[in-house]
Specification:
The chain is an alpha/beta fold. It contains 13 helices and six strands. A six-stranded mixed beta sheet has the order 3-2-1-4-5-6, with helices on both faces. Helix 3 crosses helix 4 (about 55-65) and helix 8 packs across helix 9. The longest helix has 18 residues, at about 25-40.
């Protein structure tokens, strides 16, 4: 089989033509491909690092694609030469690496708004084929209205200046645009009913937010379910969970667990599988999408009536 027709290259080449940069995804792809090429060359990570003159930590970081920046072209070329990579395959990977260096729209924001862990989440969401999320306190960020997002920011950062609040709201609204792209991901959101009852920003803000959820639930790429309060034995995780799946067969699923000032990203298959099963179980216990929309509408009528 020629390099030009290899399955690995057939999976990589479409990413070179993406209209928008996807640096987080491309860093992961470069790392995954380098790891695969290394394994094909019969080298362990420790052997390859030693022969390339890298530390084991450096090669691990390159192969995981987790750094804020992609690896340098010099380092990648060193590895490709060490592995005896076919020139055409090496050329394709270098092109992919260069695209990984193109900044995503979110990387133009102040780093105070985009710490490294949040930068990675936004980049992963931009590249994901499927996003599953469970929320126990707030409406998921991708489904928030501007007024609700403002109320969330003001609650979490009560002393933040108005300019920072506005920038954070703008960032959240910009993130939500991915739901209306031509290649929008499938989004499956499960929300605890308490989120509908927790008043943020006042009754008018809540009414607008719940009506927005009703509208977005009708979109073909959005599935929305509510876990009612009377399901007392629901197998819900104790913290919000975001589960991301990508179209590339070589890319691992990623679970994102957010904390107050940091976050965890899980990629080990055994760990991510546990969360996938938990979300599946929770979806079985939640109201159906149709019942969830009915609950949203009745909550608006009973708790947040117009005027």
């Amino acid at each position: 089989m020629s390099a030009a027709s290899s399955p690995r290259l057939s999976r990589l080449e479409p990413y070179l033509d993406r209209p928008e940069p996807a640096p987080t995804l491309l860093k992961m792809l470069v790392g995954v491909q380098l790891a695969g090429i290394r394994e094909d060359a019969g080298l362990s990570q420790e052997q390859a690092a030693r022969e390339a003159g890298f530390s084991a930590a450096k090669l691990s970081r390159i192969e995981s694609g987790k750094g804020r920046r992609p690896p340098t072209e010099t380092d990648v070329r060193t590895l490709l030469t060490l592995y005896g990579t076919d020139p055409y395959e090496a050329s394709t990977l270098i092109k992919l690496l260069r695209r990984a260096g193109e900044p995503g729209w979110w990387q133009r924001y102040d780093k105070r708004l985009m710490p490294q862990w949040f930068d990675r989440l936004v980049g992963l969401q931009e590249a994901a084929a499927t996003i599953r999320t469970f929320e126990i306190q707030y409406v998921p960020g991708l489904l928030q209205t501007a007024a609700y997002a403002r109320a969330v920011v003001e609650r979490g950062l009560p002393h933040a200046p108005e300019t920072e609040v506005q920038r954070r709201v703008e960032l959240r609204m910009r993130r939500a645009r991915l739901l209306t792209r031509d290649d929008a991901p499938q989004v499956w959101a499960i929300i605890d009913e308490s989120v509908l009852l927790r008043v943020l920003g006042g009754a008018e803000v809540m009414r607008e937010q719940l009506e927005h959820l009703v509208r977005t639930a009708a979109w073909p790429n959005v599935t929305l379910q509510i876990v009612p309060l009377n399901v007392t034995n629901a197998s819900a995780p104790a913290i919000p969970v975001t589960y991301l799946r990508f179209s590339g067969a070589d890319l691992p699923d990623v679970v994102y667990l957010e904390h107050i000032r940091s976050a965890n990203f899980l990629e080990d298959r055994d760990e991510t599988e546990e969360y996938r099963v938990a979300l599946d179980r929770l979806a079985d216990e939640a109201l159906t999408p149709r019942e969830s929309v009915e609950l949203l509408r009745s909550t608006v009528e009973q708790r947040y009536p117009a005027g």
